[in-house]
Specification:
The protein is an alpha+beta fold. Helices cover about 20% and strands about 30% of the residues. It is built from six helices and 17 strands. It has helices spanning about 5-10, 15-25, 115-120, 140-150, 190-195, 225-240, and strands at about 1-5, 30, 35, 40, 50, 55, 60-65, 95, 105-110, 130-135, 155, 155-160, 165-170, 175-180, 200-210, 210-215, 220-225. The strands form four sheets. Strands 7, 8, 9, 10, 13, 14, 15, 16 and 17 form a nine-stranded mixed β-sheet that branches. The protein has a four-stranded antiparallel β-sheet with strand order 3-2-5-6. Helix 1 packs across helix 2. The chain is elongated, with a radius of gyration of 21 Å. The site of uracil has 8 residues, from helix 5. Uracil binds near residues 101, 102, 188, 190 and 191.
Length: about 240
């Protein structure tokens, strides 16, 4: 059973908030009866009509986007900036990003209209791996990198254990390239972790999400996930192992 406004949003009627307005305005019928209750729950066997038109559940779709820098990872932006959804002008389904990447971060981001899948990919209890390459200012000390690996105190709590490896150091520019793998997704986590050791991030790319990479794509390009990949991602979240 799902909330009526969620079912409407998933069917592509409108956003959840707009769907709520339609419900309150008496424009929605469930099994032939007008329903103005926002708490109403419906199942797949209930017949939902909006302004006389029966809803058909959207097919679930799954994409992998290589997000360039300078793009916001929400479905809409009130400041009119380019969003990750703008890369899919031909897609009729109401897709949205799975988790977030900062405006200035590039790399892999999944897009879907499947809320259950999105939950499996983003809830920290499923520990989906995210691998980043960070160019940072300075040359982090070994013990600081160990701190990042063990977990470091941020303002919203300790980070979970991470894997951290120095890939290269440029003594001329005093910058370093560091690979960091985390299994959670606090807001701006990687940037805040490096801020905490006073080596701020200058450039950040997400190279890997679960077992997927941007291989074969240029920045701004996307591809559909294969049925096999979708299945593997679900198994990975549910069992911690690839199927
Ligand atoms: N950590 C960050 O700081 N930024 C991102 O976009 C992703 C992880």
């Amino acid at each position: 059973m799902e909330r009526l406004q969620k079912v409407m949003a998933q069917a592509g009627v409108a956003s959840r908030r707009k769907s709520e307005e339609l419900i309150v305005a008496g424009k929605v019928k469930v099994n032939g009866v007008v329903t103005t209750e926002l708490g109403t729950r419906v199942s797949t066997t209930d017949r939902v009509e909006v302004e006389g038109v029966q809803l058909v559940k959207e097919q679930n779709v799954y994409y992998l986007l290589y997000k360039p820098k300078g793009v916001i990872s929400t479905a809409n932006d009130e400041k009119g900036r380019k969003t990750v959804v703008d890369f899919f002008p031909e897609i009729a389904e109401r897709i949205y990003p799975v988790g977030r990447l900062d405006y200035d971060t590039s790399g892999i981001i999944l897009m879907t209209n499947d809320g259950d899948f999105s939950y499996l990919m983003t809830h920290p209890k499923f520990e989906i791996k995210k691998r980043y390459i960070a160019k940072v200012k300075g040359i982090p000390r070994r013990e600081d990198l160990r701190k990042l690996e063990r977990g470091i105190e941020l303002e919203d709590g300790m980070t979970a254990p991470a894997n951290v490896k120095t890939q290269s150091v440029d003594k001329k520019t005093m910058t370093s390239i560091i690979e960091i793998t985390i299994h959670e997704g606090k807001n701006r986590q990687v940037r805040r972790m490096f801020d905490a050791i006073e080596c701020p991030v200058l450039n950040l790319k997400r190279e890997e999400f679960a077992n997927l990479t941007t291989r074969g794509l240029n920045a701004g390009e996307a591809r559909q996930l294969t049925v096999h990949e979708i299945k593997q991602l679900r198994v990975l979240a549910e069992t911690g192992k690839l199927g």
